[in-house]
Write a structure and sequence with these properties.
The chain has 8 helices and 6 strands, in the order H-H-E-H-E-H-E-E-E-H-H-E-H-H. The chain is an alpha+beta fold. The strands form 2 sheets. A 4-stranded antiparallel beta sheet has the order 5-4-3-6. Helix 3 links the parallel strand 1 and strand 2. The longest helix has 14 residues.
């Protein structure tokens, strides 16, 4: 169910509960939480530490499975960019930090640098579940977890090229700017808003965003992509 009207000053139980994908009550997720210093209250430091742990321990691979539970991703020790973001959301909820996702339709050409010779397998647009976290009484996008896109762009004015490291791996040092906040940085080089071709809305979980949709993984091209690339290292 879409919930774009959730107050910025509070969260609902739906932003914290376990879901089929965000199964943070599972043992693999709980085992990671036990290794971390659980905050007394919602903490950016906790999220940053959780991100760095996942980046080190869950290696990046290609797969189009958006519905895989986070416990499975963690147990395998590998996952797609989207699956690793889901793991971060799961660890956040386990610590009492509310999460939700902004559904962005991103042009398939955004991924062309990775798949120059198999671009026909990529659809014209792909639904991206972009995480948001409730910290200090407001919602922030995952692109703001370490610094604002503008600040990251000033430190590193090179655009995210999407031909090497994944979105997940770049988030702490590169401006991932789907909102157009860095249009004045290096002649707009860091601004990725031109790839956004539609707004699916804000949802209380990625489960809600994906519910009832025909996902890429369910299509013939998606199954072919999985046969060609599934499980391969992505950076």
């Amino acid at each position: 169910m879409e919930r774009s009207d959730v107050s910025a000053s509070g969260i609902s139980v739906e932003n914290l509960r376990p879901t089929r994908i965000l199964d943070h009550a599972s043992e693999p997720v709980r085992a990671i939480v036990r290794r971390m210093r659980k905050p007394k209250e919602a903490s950016r430091d906790y999220l940053q530490a959780a991100y760095l742990l996942l980046r080190d321990e869950v290696r990046p691979i290609y797969t189009v499975d958006e519905l895989q539970p986070t416990s499975v991703t963690i147990s395998k020790g590998r996952g797609s960019c989207s699956q690793r973001f889901a793991c971060l959301e799961s660890l956040a909820r386990a610590a009492g930090i509310g999460t939700r996702v902004h559904g962005l339709w991103v042009a398939g050409r955004f991924w062309n640098p990775r798949f120059r010779f198999t671009a026909p397998f990529i659809p014209s647009r792909i639904l991206l579940a972009w995480p948001q976290f409730h910290l200090d009484g407001t919602w922030i996008g995952v692109e703001e977890l370490f610094a604002s896109p503008s600040r990251l762009a000033s430190r590193n004015p090179q655009a995210f090229a999407n031909d090497g490291e994944s979105l997940f791996d770049a988030i702490d040092h590169a401006a991932i700017d789907f909102g157009g906040a860095t249009a004045d940085c290096a002649s707009g080089a860091c601004d990725l808003s031109g790839f956004v071709v539609g707004d699916a809305g804000v949802f209380e979980s990625r489960d809600d965003l994906f519910a009832g949709r025909l996902l890429f993984q369910h299509t013939l091209r998606g199954r072919a992509f999985e046969l060609l690339y599934g499980g391969r290292k992505s950076c």
